Amino acid sequence: METNRRAAIRWFEEVWTQGKVELIPELALPDAEGHDMEGPGVTTKGMDAFRDFHGKMSGAISDLEVNVLDTIAEGDRVVVRVHSSGTHTGGDLGIPPTGNPIDFGAVIIFRFENGKIAEAWNFIDQLAFYQQLRILNVR
């Protein structure tokens, strides 16, 4: 379980915050699936899809930082609560750059096989994300 927990933490600290996408094959299976990563009901599959999504996010939020706040590991699962922040400076998500600061949370449940990510279910505070981009004006 500790190996899986450390891999989950590295996923955010090294791949997302430090931009080390070359570590994706070390941390995830070739056919790993990410559920709801790109939106509700959307499943992303495979390393190329993960690299593409990382490129979109880092192109849209140039100074993206993802901090791990909590982890819970049991069996082949690791639950991670993160806080993400940055500045919306690019249009890579299909939204014209606003220059707005972005600050939102997420909870991700990973399933591991042989020490590598096999699946991830992403619960992202999309309401906060879109409100900060001024896409939604809901309170």
Question: What does this protein look like?
Answer:
There is one protein chain. The protein is an alpha+beta fold and 139 residues long. It has one domain (2-132): Nuclear Transport Factor 2, Chain: A (Roll), CATH 3.10.450.50. Helix content is 29%, strand content 39%. The protein has helices at 2-17, 24-27, 47-60, 126-132; strands spanning 28-35, 43-45, 65-74, 77-87, 101-113, 116-124. It starts with a helix and ends in a 7-residue tail after the last helix.
Would you spell out the secondary-structure blueprint of this structure?
Layout lengths: L1 H16 L6 H4 E8 L7 E3 L1 H14 L4 E10 L2 E11 L13 E13 L2 E9 L1 H7 L7
Parallel strand pairs: 1-6
Antiparallel strand pairs: 1-2, 3-4, 4-5, 5-6
Key structural traits:
Nuclear Transport Factor 2, Chain: A, six-stranded mixed β-sheet, alpha+beta, 4 helices, 139 residues
Strand segment tally: 6
CATH class, named Alpha Beta
Which fold name fills CATH's third level, the topology? Nuclear Transport Factor 2, Chain: A
DSSP helix count? Answer: 4
Computed over alpha carbons, the radius of gyration is 15 Å
**Overall pLDDT confidence:** 91
Q: What structural class do the secondary elements suggest?
A: alpha+beta
- Terminal residue distance: 40 Å
Instruction: Give the biggest beta sheet.
Output: 6 strands, mixed
Question: What is the percent of helical residues?
Answer: 25-40%
Architecture (CATH level 2) name: Roll
Order of helices and strands: HHEEHEEEEH
Count of domains? 1
> Which term fits the overall shape?
globular
pLDDT < 50 runs, ≥5 residues: none
